[in-house]
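R.M. (postdoc): so does anyone remember the format we settled on? I'll just put the structure tokens first.
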């Protein structure tokens, strides 16, 4: 019996070791547990909807003083009324929080996003990785809001991340499929909040593509995916890509065929956006010439692989160096990319 127990124990240890090694296969995840950060989400939607509609100005002035960056975007972008450009901030806010349909949406957000300690814990881990790779950066402040589907999660520099709760209400919420197609709704659950927030932060770091060719876009977007992966390394790739796991597996299986397609159709150096829009932008599928099971934005996935090979071949490069290198052709050449 003792021998049998020892064999079972050894088998368990071996299986556990194999699982641990393969669950984060190929990733060198640094230990960041010693880095002290905080991640408390300030529920600004509650403060805004609690304003006294008979005297909005008094309470609104305090919120605007406490959160100037966010409120500037909230007033001038989210609540801006193009049909009445002369409306004051108080009038815009009062009109917004007095609307019964919007108040119903607010109530739904309160129910769906009632408990957030687990979410704040996930943000803390992401911020530890952020401070590890970017020690000179601020730890962003977190605020939440609703916009009636006007603006999703965004970042203001490296100082603020704003989370639009109404963009993460889950599959049971009756989103308008004409406004949010099914392939977009797939990413509108709570599972995507942290990854999309870090993507917004990374977007501010990386800026815009420095060219109009497909290769410029795909390596730029691949760079963003690579950086997000560094900040949330334990998050499944399917979440970072807004793919199903089957779609991730399809990309891995068909990497060579996809690369051959880009070369064979003379797309890599094309500047005609209409020819490769679906290869880099959200879409139910990639292109007419690609198999129907191919997901949208597959060029971004290939860009991620190219950037990953580039960083593997240039281990002295930091993430700051990667951000600073804006020549897509240089990254492609130095990566010596060869699809598996």
């Amino acid at each position: 019996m003792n021998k049998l127990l020892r064999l079972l124990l050894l088998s368990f240890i071996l299986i556990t070791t194999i699982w641990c090694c393969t669950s984060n296969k190929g990733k060198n995840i640094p230990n960041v547990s010693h880095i002290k950060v905080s991640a408390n989400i300030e529920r600004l939607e509650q403060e805004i909807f609690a304003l006294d509609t008979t005297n909005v100005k008094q309470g609104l002035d305090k919120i605007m003083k406490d959160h100037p960056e966010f409120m500037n975007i909230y007033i001038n972008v989210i609540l801006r009324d193009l049909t009445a450009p002369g409306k004051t901030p108080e009038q815009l806010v009062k009109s917004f929080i007095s609307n019964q349909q919007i108040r119903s949406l607010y109530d739904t957000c309160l129910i769906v996003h009632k408990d957030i300690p687990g979410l704040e814990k996930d943000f803390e881990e992401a911020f530890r990785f952020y401070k590890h790779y970017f020690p000179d950066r601020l730890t962003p402040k977190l605020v939440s809001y609703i916009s009636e589907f006007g603006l999703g999660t965004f970042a203001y520099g490296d100082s603020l991340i704003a989370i639009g709760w109404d963009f993460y209400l889950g599959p049971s919420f009756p989103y308008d499929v004409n406004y949010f197609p099914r392939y977009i709704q797939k990413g509108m659950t709570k599972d995507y909040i942290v990854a999309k927030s870090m993507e917004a932060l990374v977007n501010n770091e990386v800026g815009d593509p420095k060219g109009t060719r497909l290769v410029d876009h795909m390596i730029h977007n691949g760079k963003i995916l690579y950086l997000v992966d560094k900040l949330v390394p334990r998050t499944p790739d399917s979440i970072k890509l807004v793919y199903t796991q089957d779609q991730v597996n399809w990309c891995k299986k068909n990497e060579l065929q996809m690369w051959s397609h880009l070369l064979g159709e003379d797309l890599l150096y094309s500047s005609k956006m209409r020819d490769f829009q679906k290869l880099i932008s959200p879409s139910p599928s990639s292109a007419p010439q690609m198999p129907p099971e191919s997901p949208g934005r597959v060029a971004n996935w290939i860009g991620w692989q190219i950037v990953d090979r580039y960083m593997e071949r240039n281990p002295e490069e930091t993430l700051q160096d990667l951000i600073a290198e804006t020549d897509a052709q240089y990254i492609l050449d130095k990566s010596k990319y060869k699809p598996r």
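R.M.: ...and that's the designed sequence above, right after the tokens. Also worth knowing: Confidence is low (pLDDT under 50) at residues 1-5, 7-25. Residues 41-193 form one domain.
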